[in-house]
Amino acid sequence: xxxxxxxxxxxxxxxxxxxxxxxxxxxxxxxxxxxxxxxxxxxxxxxxxxxxxxxxxxxxxxxxxxxxxxxxxxxxxxxxxxxxxxxxxxxxxxxxxxxxxxxxxxxxxxxxxxxxxxxxxxxxxxxxxxxxxxxxxxxxxxxxxxxxxxxxxxxxxxxxxxxxxxxxxxxxxxxxxxxxxxxxxxxxxxxxxxxxxxxxxxxxxxxxxxxxxxxxxxxxxxxxxxxxxxxxxxxxxxxxxxxxxxxxxxxxxxxxxxxxxxxxxxxxxxxxxxxxxxxxxxxxxxxxxxxxxxxxxxxxxxxxxxxxxxxxxxxxxxxxxxxxxxxxxxxxxxxxxxxxxxxxxxxxxxxxxxxxxxxxxxxxxxxxxxxxxxxxxxxxxxxxxxxxxxxxxxxxxxxxxxxxxx
Length: 406
What we know:
8-stranded mixed β-sheet; 8 strands; Rossmann fold; AB_hydrolase_3
């Protein structure tokens, strides 16, 4: 939890517990009312949604709105700490050194004083030599969650490993807000892949990068960097409800709204999100029109388009940040030579438009892109362990079929 006076009093440490207690008490008071309302009138529920699913989404949306409003981070861990061996049942923990400076080209050719020079990974190992090697990147908007095997999102790497298709699966403890910047997170993941290729002799065609939500956003940036700077094409990208247009909500895109606010559990506090984009993702703290506005090059749409990505600072409209932004429709080599890709998403989620734009542009640029649409699904359904099991099972079956072709 971080107090940010630019966002408002709700983030003050003295106010947060009171505000959260009030909001949680409201949810508890409303639950029986919602239960009666939706229980007696199924017409207000989606066809495949049970009463329990409907109530779950109502509660999650309220909780998400509360977390956004208070600028609270949940279920994170100190990325510089090593877990005790007694904590780990299925994985081993390993530090991987950051890629040497002489190998950091392009947007990663930045030098700054930092205590960090390595990234932690939780690794599932089968002991066999062949098979795919997975890199999994959890979601959480670069604010929440972690890579530990006991984290809520660890059911994804666990499920992938249980398929028997992988010799190793790495869950990467990449950099979050408060511990660095987006380019640090990019360097974290690229360093893991460089270690696999350079030190362990893994062929890039065996490496599959999986990311859900913000992890999907980071996965796209990793594939772009490897293509542009290393000439490396991975075996595949597995994107689960990827966040692919963070420019929405930034001043230059103020006119655009995400759909499905009444059906998805994602609730956006626009100023909070704009500040996250400004200060973490594009590393821009030279705002001239108030918090969340960015520098002059990020405030004006034309200027943002003309702003070149530089080491340590990216344009909000950079393909690294917002590949699905309207302004990138005609960008050169947007997805040319990207790895084959599988995209899973829900028809009732907030990110549906930008995900479908992503897929359309990938296919236009010649990417072998397979889509899986859960028509009445919400955001990132594979982390919702209490969601319709038949729907989740169908998604996983489609994923495993695709992985067998990698």
